[in-house]
Amino acid sequence: MSSRKSLRSSFVAGLVGMALLAAACGASTDPGTWEEAEADGDKVRLNFELSCEEANADSAGDGDVPAFCDCSYGVIREFYADDFGAFKDAESELRSNPEAINDSTVIPTALRIQLDECAAEYLA
């Protein structure tokens, strides 16, 4: 594995763990659907993007961190489009057990692949 690929993977791991936590914790209400979350001023998205940008600000080099975060949010939103509960379950598991970031039952491989694509496009 090249160091660039390894670096992108660490970006994604840090992003997912920190951003899912911040996204769910930052909302003033406890939305049950994406629509409810978006109706509440879209705080889930805003908190996600803020935490993502903070988590990646110092290590992105010449990458476009805001575009990476926007891409990543879109991937996560689409991946969990029909199951906001699964998104919240993943966040809850990561909050109680940050090591679960490496568990494919918490962050599915298909989601990791898509997040790696965002990293390759915007952080490479």
Explain how this protein is built.
By secondary structure, the protein is an all-alpha fold. It has one domain. The protein is 69% helix and 0% strand. The protein is built from 6 helices and no strands. α1 (3-26) packs antiparallel against α3 (43-56), α1 (3-26) packs across α6 (109-122) and α4 (65-79) runs antiparallel to α6.
- Please tally the helical runs, counting DSSP H or I stretches of 4 or more residues: 6
Poorly predicted tracts of residues: 1-7
Task: Report the radius of gyration as a whole number of Å.
Answer: 14 Å
| Pattern of helices and strands | HHHHHH
Structural class: mainly alpha
Dominant shape: globular
Report the span from N to C terminus. 15 Å
Q: How much helix is in the residues?
A: 55-70%
Mean pLDDT: 77
